[in-house]
Model the fold of this input.
Amino acid sequence: MEKNRMPFFSMKLDEQGAADIYIFGDITPYKWEDSDVVAYDLATQIKNLPENAEITVHINSNGGDLKEGLGIYNVLKGRNVTTICEGFAASSASVIFCAGTKRVMNAASLLFIHNASMIAAGNADDFEKAADDLRIITNAAKEAYREAGVNVTDAQLDAMMDSETWITPRDAVEMGFATEIAEAEEDAAIKNDAMNS
Done:
């Protein structure tokens, strides 16, 4: 007997109008596969939610297109959003993770950050232009991290992006990517109070 599978992207509302959003697929501009997550889908689903609606975004994604990730980040930013890393919040999914006012890492979860990349073709001028464009695009991701309260220096963040860095829950809290680590006992949660100070 085949069970009903939860979609890779879905939104569920409770009686109070609170929403749970699940981003469990690749982030792409076009829906090629059932697992793909498109910014437009998310934006159209949350636009009718009340401004003060509680939104919890569950993330387990390898990331994908940064344009789409930034779109989702900006649609969520400023709302009453909690983001939860349920496995990986990698690449552009790490940007979406940073949209939460409350950003929760599970003990067995990871963030992954790196510089933007793309495929380029053409002559030397085209490649130089592509390199310049990628630096600008990468800076947009860095701006999202900074808005979230990431507290490492610019040089440290650059080095982490350059070296394609996996970030553990404890390091994520210490560096300001996350605000806490989910624990079995809420009293035992590790919290980052930097945003409140």
